[in-house]
Records
---
Amino acid sequence: MNEYENPTPDEELPFEVDDAEAERRAAALRAGLTEFELSEEDEALLEGGAEGGADAGARPGLPVLAIVGRPNVGKSTLVNRILGRREAVVQDTPGVTRDRVTYPAEWAGREFTLVDTGGWEVDVAGMDARVAEQAEVAVDLADAVLLVVDGTVGAVDTDNELVRLLRRSNRPVVLAANKVDGAAGESDAAELWSLGLGQPFAISALHGRGIGDLLDAVLEVLPVVSAVAGPRPEGGPRRVALVGRPNVGKSSMLNALAGSQRVVVHEEAGTTRDPVDELIELGGRQWMFVDTAGIRRRVHQTKGADFYASLRTQAAIEKAEVGVVLVDASDRLSEQDIRVVQQVIDAGRALVIAYNKWDLMDEERRYYLEKEIEKDLVQVPWAPRVNVSAKTRWHVDRLVRALDTALESWDTRIPTGRLNAFLGELAAAHPHPVRGGKQPRILFATQASARPPRFVIFATGFIEAGYRRFIERRLRETFGFEGTPIEISVRVREKRRR
């Protein structure tokens, strides 16, 4: 092991330099780079400035359209057709969608929120009952409803029961007869006038037939400003993805944070398939929490609905700013848990690790569990950790503090002067070891970007991985960076030939 890997305590850096002196040193180092061969990309990087932020404000809430119907009538296929992309998980079996899932949508210049729901059925039990409840909640929280019926089958008893429910809701309803692929099926769709909801629009969600006329009718009943959705903050709330392997309590955690049964919770692993967004007020601020499907195994080893759910979970992580990885405290950290943590890091997102079901552990077990955690998380000691219980809401409020810490680090920028003064002191106290008779020298460093913090070091030779890890560890010790991955890249530059 090299001497810089574990320096003794008396070798710790005395990093004390005022900002003016730091800027003076950085300017001198920057001027020294003119002697080296620099590319246009290098010059652009060195001239780059800090990123700015948007002013906060508020906009009226978007109108909400809920899509409902019995199982396997093509609701999620219609959602994808309206969005113009494959967003909702679709499979040729009933019951794929289980939660109410929201998507931002637009038609003819009008923006609205689209809510996909699971199949509604009457007199069902277990998970099917929870799915039906979520569909009913979606109707209550909508400005208008789009009822989808299978046009090739016509109205069945379940459709008639659903119509009675919609009449009691007093929401405007637009009726869509799906799976009508040609003119021959339109006569069958016309029989749906008997439901008493007005004109049935014959469509094919799969092929796009009749979608334009349907959406024109939807816009006629949707209000311009929602009567149910609250105002939207300008710039949006911070986005948090709840991720983890199946059955660790992600959906229970979202329900605990929301204070309501926002998503379906069932003892069966893999209940959630589509990422579910929910705006939640926590710590006096609004956050956008996203419940995701459990990451079972590597994506290429999954199939069917689980395959598409895995892809959407990855997309949800990339759209988020911070990933909260839930771990079951009653189980030893598994390879799957480590893979989920790495997935968040690879996406460049801030990281918080939450040990769920902690309240089930007795005092003796907690003592040994703490020792196990220290060993298991040795690769990510910088990640904030909270011990919580989604079921009882125990210590859920501590999640806000951890999220704030991780996001503050994720957003952090170090002034170029301070960064170069830090690296100068570091290299003087612990120089890079000599390799092949040569010792690489750090010429200059800059923070190329934040979110996550990415540093670029210009050097006279290759800086090995061990020394880069040493730099990262000292960066964390000096500047914090708790809860965020750090990227360090090295550009080797040679002196200009005279």
Note: The first helix runs from residue 19 to 32.
---
Amino acid sequence: MSFEGARRSGRRARHAQRAAKPVVDPCPPGQTGGAFKPLTQPEIEQIYDTALRLLETLGMGNVPDRLAADLRAAGAQPGEPDRLVFPREMVERVVTSAAKTFTFHGRDKTRSIEVGGDRVFFGTGGAAVQTLDIDSGLYRPSTLADLHDFTRLQDTLANVSWFTRCCVATDLPDVFDLDVNTVYALVSNTTKPIATSFTLAEHVAPIVEMLDIVAGGPGEFAKRPFLKAHISPVISPLRYGEDAVDVVYKCITHNIPMSCITAAQAGASAPATLAGFLAQSLAETLASLVMVNTIKPGFPMVFSNWPFIVDLRTGSFAGGSGETAILNAASAQITNWLCLPSGVASSMTDAKAIDAQYGAEKGITSLAAALAGGNLIYESSGMTASLLGASFEAFVLDNEMHSHTYRALRGIEVTEENLGFDAICQSVLGDGHFLGSAHTYAAMERDYFYPALADRNEPRTWETEGAVDAWSVARDRVKKILATHHPKYLTDEQDAEIRRRFRILI
């Protein structure tokens, strides 16, 4: 064989080795977090005490009549004009009795995840209105077709543990069509746990009818709900939003678990100081917890305290900042201290391109949130441009990044075998190296993650293989997946029934 032929053969062998699945996954989702503790115990207690004081002194404004009646019956008291205050004992009683864990079901039972405790899972979120076009490399308005493609793509990515719609179909001006077709895109293209938002409360019941068709008949979805609602019932600072509160009531009626998301912005709708921000944001998320548990005690709710940062010079959102990293890590630490299912946001790069800024911001923020033990880490896959954009290439690159993070969370297993005393003696007194030893082979697949996208070749080989960058590698991977992965998760009968009853636009 010629030198050139041998080189091509060796390249094919390397590619085949990279594509092969490991015998043992060294870094699966659900690793244990919580080793990173940015706050001391006294600091957590100070923040929590301040949050309780805020609820006891200021309470919540703009409380809808129905909710106000329920809260007063549970112990809330009138405060300043048109506000209700929450006595400390009332809030602490709710924290003690609230759901500590729940199963986030996938339609495929093997894809379900247990939310709460110390397990970490990466997933998606967001409502990007622009998509980074895979061909032009520039942004354009997101479409319903994009949402279908994003859902198909992430269905193949092991480290995206649940899928929330990542973009808004801006080509659907009618909000009911938007909500219906968003859910249809999710159920037709994945069997993972899914999540969405409801624009209006009256959209919930019809969409549950669609979910019942998917689940097997009337009332079947509520028995094992595989869709979670993302709701922001609190408007910072310290007010309820009536439309979102209405959605909360409807979701509880139909047994739809929820993430109640607080998304205050430092220096705008919350204090600019990080400690003050955490205190107010915690108070607001506790107000959501009190609301949900007043309506139905013990109802599954992800305590989604998402601290957001703005660049105070320009007013621009700064999702990839160091402040975002530390605040979301602190939020996860506080929520886990309260023993509640925690949800935080990370990997919200402000970069527009798949570049060095993109990688640095995603790596810093997502690792911090995971090490702090965020149970569900939202926005962590595919998001770019300060949450205004979603990228196909980012999805596959982020999926690989999550494997590295899970490997870091897994830590170092110190056992007599792993310490390798006998292996060290054998190598020192024998070959003088560890290459090819049984001890090395055993560790090779068990302890190490081998990336499929990242390039670890020396420069000459990289040049020979085309000198491609990460963006190009990811683009090729996405195109292959979208060309071949066309799941059929709805039966013909289910699809026909949904299309008969709803206006499905793709």
Note: Residues 416-447 form one domain.
---
Amino acid sequence: MNAETPAMEVRNLYKQFQIGKRGIFSKEEFVRAVDGVSLSIGHGETLALVGESGCGKSTLALTLMGLEKPTQGSILFEGKDPVTDKEYHFKEWCRNIQMVFQDPYESLNPLMTIGDTVAEPLQVHGLTKNKPERDERVIRALEDAGLKPAVNFLNRLPHELSGGQRQRVVIAGALVLEPRVILADEPVSMLDVSIRAEILNLLKDLSRDKGISILYITHDLGTAAYFADRIAVMYLGRIVELGAMLDVLNNPKHPYTQALLSVVPVPNPRLRRKRIILAGDPPNAIKIPTGCRFHPRCPIAVQRCKEIDPQLVELGGKHEAACLLLN
């Protein structure tokens, strides 16, 4: 495998949901949840995907995981497309790409012990020859997830653990398969503030020590800035800004990114930005506005923003943004 080949690459990805007709003579309508997304994640890299609720972040993650079938476009894992590569089994895709969901309690079977929960993926994929080998991998995964000593947790049930411990069990269930990529969908939003830093530090350590690539999905730019290498800003199904974390934080180019950053709490009052409050709610994903999809809420929009749909353009280095006013 070429070292320059990304761990995961998305090319012009679309995901639409058909919702039927509103009347006898009307046309079929579709929710354009993911609308032409292209991005890549390097080996051992953490990419933060940020945006408002409803912008398509979770749908993108479910599509990357294989839980939703893309309408159009391709998803490559280490240069291989599981749809077109007949030698690449989809089960191998599922083993190498694991997902951590938002609510740890909903992710766990309340009737299964922690040991059985973490061991189940090994049984499904047939990766261990006997019970001692399976137990060894389960204990290692639990301890890698920060649950030490692991033997104290094997026979406990999810309701006997705290929220942070449950999320660590979910992470252990992903780690036990030794994946190359983890898709973390709002993994700390259901946790107490005091626990969030611990889980973020755990993900950061896993990326650094084990070379796991992480797609961190969130609406919170504060947590994204804490440990991500790059950031992709998503609006109404499309990436509107993409770049190195510090480049985007220090010099955001797209008006939407500027608005998101303006409301992030900053301890030093001298460093606070002037708040930009966007008017109105995000447009309907069924009837996306013509031209720039952000123009109905953009505080600096001009007439041509209503007519021309901007694409991502390079602004120097690897910083890109999609805004007509940058030209």
Note: The chain is about 30% helix and 20% strand.
---
Amino acid sequence: MLPQRAGIGLKPEHFRDILECKPEIGFFEIHAENYMVAGGPLHHFLGRIRADYPLSIHGVGLSIGSEGGLDQAHLLRLKALLARYQPDSFSEHLAWSSHGGTYFNDLLPLSYTHKTLDRVCLHIDQVQHFLNRRVLIENPATYIEFVDSEMDEADFIKEMVLRTGCGLLLDVNNLYVSAVNHGRDGNAMLEALPLHDVGQIHLAGYFEDKDSDGMTVLIDHHGAAVSDAVWSLYDSALRLTGQHATLIERDNDIPAFEVLMAEAQWAERYLAGHLVRPFLTDEPRPL
């Protein structure tokens, strides 16, 4: 289990900084697919860093929601990676990214039907059995909704968790992005989720765009600092769930390591506030 602290996504740009400075940080997280090779510099540095820090592994390619079966070769590579590093947590997305042997560089949305639910639960059961561990499934950031959906996202996730025993990776930025894009209340969406099954929290930044009608659309691009609105929703989440390991995600426009550490330290202050009392300050958030 990850410590109830803040962590940072591990990037090659920061390997040497981490090894030289040994920062005080709760954990690091990697994307599984970046390490599905036998050797090379990524493994050299990860092995050294893993020796000193807890590790979370986050998958982006299992395609849990795909209509086809799971990719067995991908599962084998994933199992070998988990055996090699023994991470404290493994998570994946509630999405699909492959069809008929074609792989897409996107996490694509699902229609929330009973048929989709059966397929997703089957795939999660297969993954958990094959890996012999509980998997955390991340709530998605969505930009469209399907007219054939038979339930809302929260009910879909509740049933998924109940039927499979998986945990929830609560991505607060995804929740906020979806709330704005669909004109809903983020706090109400948060409260509807199975929060007792949260195993980890993610925070990230978004990009604000306009659609063809000039309406605001938020894009989950992981290329900016966490916004004030997402920090506020995170505070609400902690009030409901208590402390949980919290990751600062940054996958584009990677800043200096010190910038990410400042965001992680801000998350630590929120976490500490929910151990004793809400943290109140006029100090500006890191940019």
Note: The longest helix spans residues 114-131.
